[in-house]
Amino acid sequence: MRSYAARRLVAAVGVTLGVTVATFLLLHVEPGDPARLVLGEHASPQAVAALRRSWGLDRSLPSQFWRFLSGLLRGHLGKSYVYGVSATSLIGQRIGVTLALVALATLFAVVIAVPLATLAAARKERPLDHLVRGLSVLGLGMPAFWFGIVLIEVFAVHLKLLPVGGWGSSPGQHLEGLVLPALTASFAIVPILVRSLRVGMAEVLDAEFIATVRSKGIGEVRVLLAHVARNALIPTLTLLGINVAFLVGSTVIVEQVFDLNGLGSLLLDAITNRDFPVVQAVTLVLAAIVVVLNLLTDLLAARLDPRIRLR
Amino acid sequence: MSGALLTAPQLELEGARMPSFWRRARRSPTLLAGCTITGLIVLAAILAPILSPDRPDQQDLFHILSGFTWQHPLGTDELGRDELSRLLYAARTDLKVGALAVVFPFCFGTLMGTVAGYYGGLVDSIVMRVVDVVIAFPFYVLVIGLVFVVGPGERGIYVAFAVADWVVYARTIRASTLIVREADYVAAARTGGIGDLRILARHVLPNTITQAIVYVMNDIVLVIVAVVTLGYLGLGVQPPTPDWGAMISDGQEFLTTRWTLSTIPGIAVVLTGLGLSLIGDGLADVLRPR
Fold this sequence. Notes:
By secondary structure, chain A is mostly helical.
C-alpha cells in the first residue's frame, strides 16, 4: 500500500506541476495585452507600458513563470487587476460554496446512480432496464444548465418548495439553496455512471459466487443489496474519480444558473472583467481540487481492493 | 502464382464483410431510431429557409412575447422574433459547429494514441503525461479558459475543443493499439518486412478505429451540449446568429410568463443528443466483433 501511495502521490505532484505550467502558458502566450484590455483602446502607450511594468509583464516569460511559481509556493496566487486584493482572499471567500456543492452533488450522484444501475442490471433486457437505459441516453444530451432551469421552474416557481437561487444567510438556508444546484450538477454525471455501472453489475450478477448465493435460497433483494451492490463499490469509486473533473467543471455553470457565489461565478466574473490573475488562480485551484479528489479516490479504492495496488 | 493464392481468399473476405455490416445495421432498432431522429433534425436544419415562417432576426414589435398563434406557431421572444424560425436556424448553427469541432480532436487524438501505443517508450510517456495534464482540468473550466483567451465565438470554440477534446480519443486508441500491437498478424507483417507506416495503416488502424468512430457520436453530443452551454454563458456563437443556448438564456428571464421560450430550445438539444447517442450505441452493437 505504501509504495502504491507513494507512486500515486508522485504522479499527482507531477500532474499538478504540469497543470501549473499549462495554466500559466494559457494566459501568457496569447495575443491580447491584458494592460491594453484593462485600460481600453484610448489609453496612452506610456500608461499601458507603466501598467505592464507594475504587473511584471515586461519581463521574459521564464522570469514571469518563476515569479508566479515562487509566489505559489508561498501561497500567493497573484493579485486581482480589478479589485486590487489578492486572488487567494477572493478564492478563500468562495471556495466553501463550491466544495459544498461538489460534495452534495457527488452524494446525489451515488444515491441516484447506484440503485438505478442495480435495478437495470437485475432486470436486464426487460422493460425496466430499457427505461433506465433510455433515460440515461436522454440525460447524456441534456445541458446541465437547462435541466437546472427546468428544476427551478417546477420546484421553485410552481411548487414553491425551494428557493430560486442564492445562498441565504443561515446554515439551513445554505442547505436549502444547495439542493437544486447539487441535483443539477449530479445529473451531469449520473447518466455516465449508470451506463458504466450497469455493465459491471450485470457481469457480477452472472458470476459464479452469485449463483452459489442464490442456490443457498437467499432472497433476490438480499442478493442484490448484500452481494452485488457491495461489489459495485469499487467501480463506483473509480468512476467517480474519472468523472469528478467533469462534475467540478459543471459546477461553474450550475453556480451561474442558481446565482451562487462560488469559484465558478468568480471565474466567469473574472473573465468578463478580463481579470487575468484571477482567471489563472481560479483555473489552477479548480484543477488542483480535481487532482486531489482523483488521488483520494484512487487511494481509497486501493485501500479497499488490494489488487489495485499491484498494478 | 503465390500472389494469386494470397489475393483470392482476401477478396472473398472483403466481399463478405461489407454486406454483413449493412445486414446487421438494418436489424438494429437502436441504430434505425437514432438515424431517423438525427435525419429529421438535420433535414429540418437544411430546410430552415423553407420551413421558417419568418427570418430568424425579423422583429415583429407588435407581437412581443406572444403565445402560440397562427402567425407565430411557437410564439415570439422579447424582441418579437419568431421562435420557430430561430429554433430552425439555430439547428443549422449548432449542428454545424458540433460536427466541425470534433474533426480535429478525432484525427489528432487517433494519431497520438496510435503513435503512443505502437511505439511505446519515450513517445508514449510524453504523450500520456500531456494527456494526464489536460484531463486534470475540469472540462468546462478548460474550455471556458481557452475561449476567453482566443475570444468568444466559433473560432474560440474550435480552438477550445481542439485542445481539450483530443485526449479521450488518444486514450481509447492507445489502449486498443497496445492490444493489437501484440497480435500475431502484426508480428507476421513485421517479420515479412513490411514498413511501420503500412502496418499501422493496413493492420493496426482498421482494428482500433471502430471504437473512436463509435465515440465520435457521443462526442458530438458532448460538444453540442458544450456549445449550447457556452452560448448560455454568452461565450459561444455570438448574436445575432441564432443558437439554442442563447435562446435558453434569453428565455430564462421570462420563466414565469412564457416558460416555453427556454424549454423548447432545450428539448431540441435533448432530442439531438438522443438521436446521436442512439446512433453511437447502435454502431457499437453492429461493429462489436463477435
